[in-house]
Amino acid sequence: MKLRAEEVYDCLFDDDLFSHLPGRLAEAFGARSALMHCRFTSGGAGVMGHSGYFTDEQMNLYTEEFATADPWAAAAAATRTLNSAIDLEWLVPPEVYERSVFFNEYIRPMGDDTFRAIGLRIERSWGSGMLGLQRGKTQAPFDAGNLKDLQESERHMRHLLSFRGRLEHMSQKLSTIEAVLDQAPEANLVVLRNLQIVYANAAAERLLRRGVLGSRSRRLVEDEAGENRKLIQAVQVATDPTAPEASLALLLGDGRAPIAVNVVPLAWRSGKRGALLTFRDPSGADGVVLEQLAALGLTQAEALIAERLSAGLSPEQVAAERQVSVNTVRSQMKALYSKLGCRRQAELAAIVRSLHSTLSQPPAQ
Asked: Quick one: how far is CA 114 from the chain centroid?
């Protein structure tokens, strides 16, 4: 059974269809499993999709610890065999594969005997992508007919691997950048000329939830007292299409000390303009309290929910704020209550208040 070209191209932009494609490929080629994976020139690897024979946890282990030890991928890279169906048993003789770290420390400990493979490999500026179709040691080898069918699909699979590999590379790169920015004590936001907020790191999200900036539906809006008027004016100046300028705006309100916000012009290659807002909450307490809650065993999501519940929000309000179901919030509440040894929202609030109180005390002399 061959895979139709339209089945491949339909998967370019449809994640649900793409998730089922490796299974369809395994079925079409009489393989036990199918895997699409990539290696990046910047380092690291990623799994684009798999047929489900291996679990997601096993695939994560492959990416993190064994992708660089994969003898099939290494041999294909060394020979620079591109855009052609490959019988990987030709590149890595069975006796060599059987002695490999990959087989003995990854495959065998799972109780598996994956031993045979055919595949395709591409190279692009971001790295290389590969489709692998596998069978077990006791199964029949792939034959010339399988290789012929795979070669006939080469052009379509090449386009798919190229597109999906680039997406995986961009996704991992963005995840790394976001993780770094979320660790920064400064709040960072990107705002467009129409005042739409298109990005906020963790510190900025906390201030947005407190209403410090004056926002509604992820857009800056002037508050009734006009306390954020100068900030909005600074954003307009920074996003001026003719003469954008950086400036410093003083944000008032929130019953706390004024916040100085750096507003810097930001331009995309497409010509779209925005402004980068950088500032720090002078109290600094919320971020530290979240870190303390994490140190007590709470996940980031649980710590954020604990903070909001302690501020007096109901589970329904927290769910709406986080754009999740109330059942999800209640499930996370049970987990955080168990970890903190409390039973009610009032007890949780007392714990969080005690953390604020401890942090506000002057250091011992």
From this structure: 30
